[in-house]
From TrEMBL:
It comes from Nycticryphes semicollaris. It is found in: Nucleus, Nucleolus. Keywords: Acetylation, Metal-binding, Nucleus, Phosphoprotein, Ribonucleoprotein, Zinc, Zinc-finger. One of its GO terms (biological process) is RNA stabilization. The keyword Acetylation applies. Its main location: nucleus. It holds the Pfam family S1. Interacts with PNN. Associates with the 60S ribosomal subunit. This is Zinc finger CCHC domain-containing protein 17. GO terms for cellular component: nucleolus; ribonucleoprotein complex. Residues 1-66 form the S1 motif domain. The keyword Cell wall biogenesis/degradation does not apply.
Amino acid sequence: VATVTEYGAFIKIPGCRKQGLVHRTHMSSCHVDKPSEIVDVGDKVWVKLIGKEMKDDKLKLSLSMKVVNQGTGKDLDPNNVSLDQDERKRRMFRDYTSQKITLEAVLNTVCKKCGCKGHFAKECFVQPGGTKYSLIPEEDDEEVAAAGCEREKKPSLVEDSSKKRKK
C-alpha cells in the first residue's frame, strides 16, 4: 500500500512503476467508511485488476481486494460474476413515466352483471344500483356507428359529410 486516502488506497504493483487504486467499495464485501481502518501504508495486500482507463494520456488502473482471498491470493471471482452484479446495481434508474401506455388487446366480451363491454362478471366492480363504466369505443367504431344511424335517417347527408372529411 503506497498511500491511503478517504476514498480508497493506492497500491504499488511489484515489478511495475504504476500504481492502481482500490476504491473503498472494492476493499471488502462489507461497507467501508474509512479505508484507513482496513489498510495502512506499507501493508502487503492481494489485488485483482478489474479495469483500465486512458485519461489525459495516463493509464489509470482499477483494483479490487474483495474478489481475492487475502490469505492465499486466490481469485474468488474468476468469471467476474460479482463485478457484473455490482455494475448492474450502479446503473441509473430510467424514468418511464413520460412514455405513453397503450393497450394492445381488448376483451371482446360483455359483462353479465352490468352489461358493459371489455370485462367478465367476476372482474366487475359495479355495485347494484351503482354507476356503470365501460370501455370507450375507438374513433373508427364511433364513426361507423354514427354513419349507420345517419344512413337509416338521411342517406344524402352521410355521403356529403364523408366527402367533406376526405378534403
